[in-house]
Design goal:
Blueprint lengths: L1 H16 L12 H15 L6 H8 L1 H14 L15 H8 L3 H23 L11 H15 L1
Helix pairs in contact: 1-3, 2-4
Length: 149
């Protein structure tokens, strides 16, 4: 029953789309985003039971709809790239962000400075100076008073 309902739903979506580029004409709407988010995985994923996927592939306008959105909004992930060969993982990371290590170090340093600043400002950590002045003499005076008693 579930597969029958899903097949019927796909067929109705195909009929509603017809030969249009999007469900409501030439520009996408929120319905297009919703429908695409359900159809693309069904179309592209490897499934253990491919009955529903085969039915979707038989509805050419829905397949073209998904391919069109993939190439328009996800050109890097839209499928085949002519002339693009698989690259090593290290090459991908290096091209993706050439300053990745520097940015990581700066993030750690910024986090450390923020934590220390919070600790000082909230009073969790305080710095007491030793030196000349009434604050430096006070503990000594207290010791002298204790000795006299």
């Amino acid at each position: 029953q579930l597969y029958r309902d899903a097949r019927e739903c796909l067929t109705l979506l195909s009929q509603r789309l017809g030969s249009q580029k999007f469900f409501f004409g030439d520009s996408p709407a929120s319905l297009d985003a919703f429908v695409f988010s359900r159809l693309a995985p069904l179309l592209k994923a490897k499934l253990p039971n491919g009955k529903l996927q085969q039915h979707l592939k038989s509805l050419q306008n829905l397949c073209n709809y998904c391919t069109s959105i993939l190439s328009l909004y996800f050109p890097w992930d839209g499928g085949e790239h002519p002339g693009s060969a698989p690259r090593a993982a290290g090459a991908d990371e290096a091209e993706e962000d050439p300053h990745k290590r520097r940015n990581q170090l700066l993030s750690v340093l910024l986090g450390l400075v923020a934590m220390l600043g919070y600790a000082f400002l909230s009073g969790i950590v305080s710095i007491q100076r030793g030196g000349v002045g009434p604050a430096a003499r006070q503990p000594i005076a207290m010791q002298e008073e204790e000795e006299e008693e």
